[in-house]
Amino acid sequence: MFVPGDSPLHRLNPAAKAAALVLLSAAVLVTARPVPIFCILLLTLAAATLSGIVMPLLRSFRLLIPLLVFILIIDAFFPRIAGGPVWFSADIWIFHPTLSAAGVLFSLAMGLRLLAVGGASFLFIMTTRYADFVRSLRALGLPATLSFSLGYALRSVSALTEDIGNITDAQRSRAFSIDRNTLLKNRHTILALFIPATVSVLSRARQVADAMQCRGFGCTDRPTCYRRHPFDAADTLLVLVAALCIPFALLCP
User: Fold this and answer.
1) Model pTM?
2) DSSP bridge pairs for 180
3) What confidence score (pLDDT) does residue 77 get?
4) I need a surface site. Which of 10, 16, 67, 226 has the fewest CB within 10 A?
5) What pLDDT sits at residue 218?
6) CA nearest 11: which of 241, 237, 229?
7) C-beta of residue 229 within 8 angstroms of C-beta of residue 132
8) Which sequence spans correspond to the domains of the chain?
9) Which of 114, 159, 205, 165 lies closest to 2, judged by CA?
10) What is the pLDDT of residue 210?
11) pLDDT digits (tens, 9 = 90+) for 45-68
């Protein structure tokens, strides 16, 4: 969710932050070595620290814990890179798990890759308003439909999170035991969350459609914009630093 603030990262052009996010993700994906990926993760944490939202960013990493554990286990025992001392090897049906030094390093790199990409994405969402993001895309010349779709997708993530939290609190206030059993053991828990969330999403879609019609969305090819987001030196510096991360990731041992 967006975290209000007046830090330099908050004031940057949303288009520059989106471009930096793409470049940082590309830098992380072009290498499988843990050192450059860890450096890019530290760069993301440093940006969050300067923006005053490092604790919200760290708390958001909890969403990645299940996927992180899965990646670490799978990539450690079934790595694409083999080598070094082998500590465990077995033949289980059609599977051949092997735990080696190279596999552990590869697993660590994949885990850091998830944290780096996820951290940069969370940081972008936490420092970018939905309306500012849409206006910056329109200023770059993107079609209005595409700009609105990307911006609405960004806003829907935080809106759905708010809905799930409100629904969970409402069910608890009605003495519904959501946390007592797991979802697999208590099928009523899934229905208690899924049905209200579906109704909320459909209701919001109808409200958005009515609002778009009231504002004449799509009635003109070149809609006007009352607020501009200039691309200044700080935005250029951000994109340049993010672009330099790609050769750094390729050349770093």
Assistant:
1) 0.68
2) none
3) 78
4) 226
5) 67
6) 229
7) yes
8) 1-128+227-253, 141-222
9) 159
10) 78
11) 998 888 888 888 888 888 888 888
